[in-house]
Write a structure and sequence with these properties.
The chain has 226 residues and is of the alpha/beta class. Helix content is 36%, strand content 18%. The chain has a 7-stranded parallel sheet, with helices on both faces. The radius of gyration is 21 Å and the shape is globular.
């Protein structure tokens, strides 16, 4: 019964998206998530449409707890952004099926570039490369939550990063930390987080608020307060 459930899960998750464009170089963004994710997801999901007219085709393979209700929200956001999402159920560090699932995804989509976004995806990329030849790239976002395991995560990342072809950092302090870990400057890029102005725009209320009326501010004029 368990094998039948696993076969149905693979069919449902791996087969839910169309094949890449013929001849496209597939970029697989990989990440571990719980609940509704975080900041890196906006960068991943919203990058997909920008590659539509290039030689690249982007997909996101997300490792997550099998019954995490928040993952549906991530799937919806990826769908709205036009980013193919591949679900990879992950029961924790001892789940050996995760490595097999990721290898199957790499082979099925003929992944050319593995793009990691955390310590686990960085480690998996190095473990899979002997079995599937691909370029390894990672973005270092930093840790937003300290736990008793955080020193271990840092140690794994410090070991992984010098073995990657290229590292992207999103802040000056992370850039300096990556260089100190042994990555040559020529393989590290500082790329600050950006905002898509066509997607994020300030919407002014059609009618004047009571405060605008009190101050005599026209409805269409920008107001700043301290």
């Amino acid at each position: 019964m368990e094998k039948q459930v696993e076969r149905r899960r693979r069919k449902r998750t791996d087969g839910a998206w169309p094949n890449p464009r013929p001849g496209a170089d597939v970029v697989l963004h990989t990440r571990v998530v719980t609940d509704t994710g975080g900041g890196p997801d906006k960068t991943i999901f919203y990058s997909a449409p920008f590659l539509a007219d290039t030689r690249y085709w982007l997909a996101a393979a997300y490792m997550h707890p099998p019954r995490d209700p928040g993952f549906r929200s991530l799937q919806k956001r990826a769908d709205e952004a036009g980013c193919p999402m591949i679900s990879v159920p992950d029961r924790g560090p001892m789940d050996r099926l995760v490595l097999r699932r990721m290898l199957n995804i790499c082979r099925r989509y003929k992944v050319r570039i593995w793009h990691g976004h955390d310590y686990k995806s960085n480690l998996l990329g190095l473990m899979l490369r002997p079995f599937w030849n691909m370029k390894l790239v990672t973005t270092v976002h930093g840790w937003v939550k300290e736990t008793r395991r955080t020193p271990l995560y840092y140690a794994i990342d410090r070991w992984c990063l010098p073995r990657y072809e290229h590292i992207i950092t999103v802040s000056d302090d992370l850039y300096e930390a990556v260089l100190k870990s042994g990555v040559p400057a020529g393989r590290c890029t500082l790329l600050l987080n950006g905002v898509d102005e066509t997607r994020f725009q300030r919407r002014l209320a059609a009618a004047a608020s009571p405060l605008r009326a009190q101050l005599g501010t026209p409805p269409g004029r920008l107001g700043l307060g301290g």
